[in-house]
Amino acid sequence: MGAGRGGAGGGGGAFRELGGSRRGEGGLAAAVEELHALGPSAVHAHLAELGRTARALLDGVGGWRVAEPLDEPSALVTLAPPPGDSAERAAARAAEASLLVGVVPTARAPLHLREPVLRVSPPPGTSLDTLRALAGVLAAA
Question: CA of 37: how far to CAs of 6, 25, 27, 58, 65, in Å?
Fold first, then answer.
Protein backbone atom coordinates (compact mmCIF):
# COMPACT_ATOMS: atom_id res chain seq x y z
CA MET A 1 0.00 0.00 0.00
CA GLY A 2 1.60 3.18 -1.13
CA ALA A 3 -0.35 5.81 0.79
CA GLY A 4 0.02 6.50 4.47
CA ARG A 5 3.65 5.46 4.69
CA GLY A 6 5.75 7.33 7.18
CA GLY A 7 8.94 7.07 9.17
CA ALA A 8 12.61 7.59 8.49
CA GLY A 9 14.32 6.76 5.22
CA GLY A 10 11.92 8.79 3.13
CA GLY A 11 14.46 9.61 0.46
CA GLY A 12 15.69 12.94 1.81
CA GLY A 13 19.20 14.25 2.19
CA ALA A 14 21.98 13.27 -0.21
CA PHE A 15 19.94 10.38 -1.62
CA ARG A 16 17.51 12.82 -3.23
CA GLU A 17 20.24 13.95 -5.61
CA LEU A 18 21.16 10.47 -6.81
CA GLY A 19 19.64 9.24 -10.04
CA GLY A 20 18.67 5.94 -11.61
CA SER A 21 19.87 2.76 -9.92
CA ARG A 22 22.03 4.79 -7.52
CA ARG A 23 18.86 6.19 -5.93
CA GLY A 24 17.63 2.62 -5.40
CA GLU A 25 20.92 1.68 -3.79
CA GLY A 26 20.63 4.65 -1.43
CA GLY A 27 17.06 3.71 -0.54
CA LEU A 28 18.07 0.11 0.10
CA ALA A 29 20.99 1.24 2.26
CA ALA A 30 18.70 3.50 4.29
CA ALA A 31 16.19 0.67 4.73
CA VAL A 32 18.90 -1.74 5.91
CA GLU A 33 20.23 0.87 8.35
CA GLU A 34 16.73 1.48 9.70
CA LEU A 35 16.06 -2.25 10.03
CA HIS A 36 19.32 -2.69 11.91
CA ALA A 37 18.59 0.25 14.23
CA LEU A 38 15.08 -0.93 15.07
CA GLY A 39 15.95 -4.60 15.23
CA PRO A 40 14.52 -7.29 12.94
CA SER A 41 12.33 -8.79 15.67
CA ALA A 42 10.74 -5.41 16.44
CA VAL A 43 10.06 -4.81 12.74
CA HIS A 44 8.56 -8.30 12.37
CA ALA A 45 6.34 -7.76 15.44
CA HIS A 46 5.18 -4.39 14.05
CA LEU A 47 4.39 -5.89 10.65
CA ALA A 48 2.56 -8.85 12.21
CA GLU A 49 0.41 -6.45 14.26
CA LEU A 50 -0.24 -4.33 11.18
CA GLY A 51 -1.39 -7.46 9.32
CA ARG A 52 -3.67 -8.53 12.17
CA THR A 53 -5.17 -5.04 12.29
CA ALA A 54 -5.70 -4.99 8.51
CA ARG A 55 -7.29 -8.46 8.48
CA ALA A 56 -9.62 -7.62 11.38
CA LEU A 57 -10.67 -4.36 9.71
CA LEU A 58 -11.05 -5.67 6.14
CA ASP A 59 -12.58 -9.12 6.65
CA GLY A 60 -16.21 -9.00 5.59
CA VAL A 61 -16.17 -5.40 4.30
CA GLY A 62 -18.29 -5.29 1.14
CA GLY A 63 -18.38 -9.09 1.21
CA TRP A 64 -14.59 -9.45 0.81
CA ARG A 65 -13.13 -12.34 2.84
CA VAL A 66 -9.62 -12.64 4.23
CA ALA A 67 -7.93 -15.90 3.20
CA GLU A 68 -5.35 -16.13 6.02
CA PRO A 69 -6.15 -16.79 9.67
CA LEU A 70 -6.93 -13.41 11.25
CA ASP A 71 -4.04 -13.77 13.72
CA GLU A 72 -1.45 -14.80 11.09
CA PRO A 73 1.92 -13.23 12.11
CA SER A 74 2.43 -11.51 8.74
CA ALA A 75 1.58 -8.19 7.12
CA LEU A 76 0.41 -9.91 3.93
CA VAL A 77 -3.36 -9.89 3.54
CA THR A 78 -5.14 -11.86 0.81
CA LEU A 79 -8.74 -10.94 0.05
CA ALA A 80 -11.21 -13.02 -1.95
CA PRO A 81 -13.79 -10.95 -3.82
CA PRO A 82 -17.52 -11.21 -3.23
CA PRO A 83 -19.98 -12.04 -6.02
CA GLY A 84 -20.34 -9.04 -8.31
CA ASP A 85 -16.89 -7.60 -7.69
CA SER A 86 -13.38 -8.61 -8.75
CA ALA A 87 -9.81 -8.14 -7.63
CA GLU A 88 -9.09 -6.20 -10.81
CA ARG A 89 -11.96 -3.74 -10.26
CA ALA A 90 -11.03 -3.27 -6.60
CA ALA A 91 -7.39 -2.65 -7.55
CA ALA A 92 -8.52 0.01 -10.04
CA ARG A 93 -10.67 1.69 -7.37
CA ALA A 94 -7.75 1.54 -4.94
CA ALA A 95 -5.45 3.17 -7.51
CA GLU A 96 -7.98 6.00 -7.92
CA ALA A 97 -7.69 6.51 -4.15
CA SER A 98 -3.86 6.48 -4.39
CA LEU A 99 -3.65 3.08 -2.66
CA LEU A 100 -1.32 0.45 -4.04
CA VAL A 101 -2.58 -3.14 -3.89
CA GLY A 102 -1.83 -6.19 -6.00
CA VAL A 103 -3.88 -8.68 -7.95
CA VAL A 104 -2.80 -12.31 -7.69
CA PRO A 105 -3.83 -14.13 -10.89
CA THR A 106 -5.14 -17.69 -10.79
CA ALA A 107 -2.03 -18.84 -12.69
CA ARG A 108 0.00 -18.09 -9.54
CA ALA A 109 -1.75 -20.94 -7.68
CA PRO A 110 -3.96 -22.80 -10.18
CA LEU A 111 -4.82 -25.59 -7.75
CA HIS A 112 -5.96 -23.18 -5.04
CA LEU A 113 -7.41 -20.12 -6.77
CA ARG A 114 -10.67 -20.17 -8.69
CA GLU A 115 -10.46 -16.44 -9.39
CA PRO A 116 -7.89 -13.67 -8.91
CA VAL A 117 -7.53 -12.35 -5.36
CA LEU A 118 -6.46 -9.00 -3.96
CA ARG A 119 -3.13 -8.80 -2.12
CA VAL A 120 -2.51 -6.06 0.42
CA SER A 121 0.95 -5.62 1.89
CA PRO A 122 1.04 -2.58 4.18
CA PRO A 123 4.57 -1.31 4.83
CA PRO A 124 5.76 -0.16 8.25
CA GLY A 125 4.19 3.14 9.12
CA THR A 126 0.89 2.48 7.36
CA SER A 127 -1.77 4.39 9.25
CA LEU A 128 -5.15 3.16 10.42
CA ASP A 129 -6.65 5.90 8.23
CA THR A 130 -5.03 4.29 5.17
CA LEU A 131 -6.51 0.90 6.09
CA ARG A 132 -9.89 2.57 6.62
CA ALA A 133 -9.58 4.18 3.17
CA LEU A 134 -8.99 0.72 1.70
CA ALA A 135 -12.05 -0.57 3.56
CA GLY A 136 -14.04 2.22 1.89
CA VAL A 137 -12.70 1.15 -1.51
CA LEU A 138 -13.74 -2.47 -0.87
CA ALA A 139 -17.21 -1.41 0.29
CA ALA A 140 -17.75 0.78 -2.80
CA ALA A 141 -18.43 -2.03 -5.29
Answer: 16, 18, 15, 31, 36
Count the Cβ atoms, other than its own, within 10 Å of residue 129: 10
126: left (phi over 0), alpha (psi -120 to 50) or beta: beta
What predicted TM-score, i.e. pTM, was given to this entire model? 0.78
Q: What is the pLDDT of residues 80-122, one digit of tens each?
A: 999 999 999 999 999 999 999 999 999 999 999 999 999 999 9
d(CA 124, CA 132): 16
pLDDT in tens, 86-97: 999 999 999 999
Architecture of domain 50-139: Alpha-Beta Complex (3.90)
Boundaries of every domain in the chain? 7-38, 50-139
